[in-house]
Design brief:
This protein is of the alpha/beta class. It contains eight helices and eight strands, in the order E-E-H-H-H-H-E-H-E-H-E-H-E-H-E-E. Strand 4, helix 6 and strand 5 form a beta-alpha-beta unit.
């Protein structure tokens, strides 16, 4: 299986970049502006993974103690987007070995993509801020297509865009959304243990391999064979 891989799609938040510190600042600032009780960074870590709107839905539901009305959520989203734009890269960090591993894969000839549920308007600036944008020839945000992970549509788009067989594409991510999307698309997946997965063991989602560190990916894909 692994010898057939020619392209790799990576999740962003919790996989390449620890972005929760900035997401937490933006969430806290939004709740404060709305006059709602705040939250902790640790709580935000359990809320990310399904896009910006779901993050705010979870935060506001927590603050209110009841399900938030869609109209209230819609009204809050511009405030959140503003605060996150202001704090996009102030506290976030690139995970260990991400740059060197991406360089190794890129140099070996693998086609690399980012497939994230983060809004596209934040994705490219973040990739640029950490100097990894040039590794990726395709970047899909959560709002690029009609559906996002765990729907298979983004990965199906990658397959079509690059004219790949299902056996040639690998998904690497930290969340069950990544693994479920890969399974639905019929492609291989690697689950990372260090990211954001709602407090669940990523292995329970059934990825084809589990890695504790980003550099462990190289134990499964062999750059010397490209």
């Amino acid at each position: 299986m692994w010898d057939q891989i020619k392209a790799i799609a990576f999740d962003l938040d919790g996989t390449l970049i620890d972005s929760v510190p900035d997401l937490a600042v933006a969430t806290q600032a939004t709740l404060a502006e709305l006059g709602l009780s705040s939250c902790t960074e640790a709580q935000v870590r359990t809320w990310v993974g399904n896009g910006a709107e779901m993050l705010m839905r979870r935060a506001m539901t927590h603050a209110l103690g009841l399900d938030v009305e869609q109209t209230a959520l819609d009204a809050a989203m511009p405030t959140f987007m503003h605060h996150y734009q202001e704090n996009l890269e102030k506290h976030s960090v690139l995970y260990a070995d991400v740059h060197s591993v991406l360089q190794t894969l890129f140099d070996a000839g693998y086609k690399l993509a980012v497939v994230t549920n983060k809004p596209y308007r934040f994705t490219l600036p973040l990739l640029n801020a950490f100097g990894i944008n040039d590794f990726f020839s395709l970047v899909l945000g959560g709002d690029t297509l009609a559906k996002m992970k765990p729907d298979p549509l983004p990965l199906q788009h990658v397959l079509r865009e690059w004219q790949l067989e299902k056996s040639q594409l690998l998904m690497v991510g930290d969340s069950k959304n990544d693994i479920l999307a890969a399974k639905a698309a019929g492609i291989a997946s690697i689950g990372l243990t260090y990211g954001y997965n709602y407090g669940e063991d990523i292995g329970l989602s059934g990825p084809d391999a589990v890695c504790e560190q980003f550099s462990d990916i190289l134990n499964w894909v062999n750059p010397t064979k490209q």
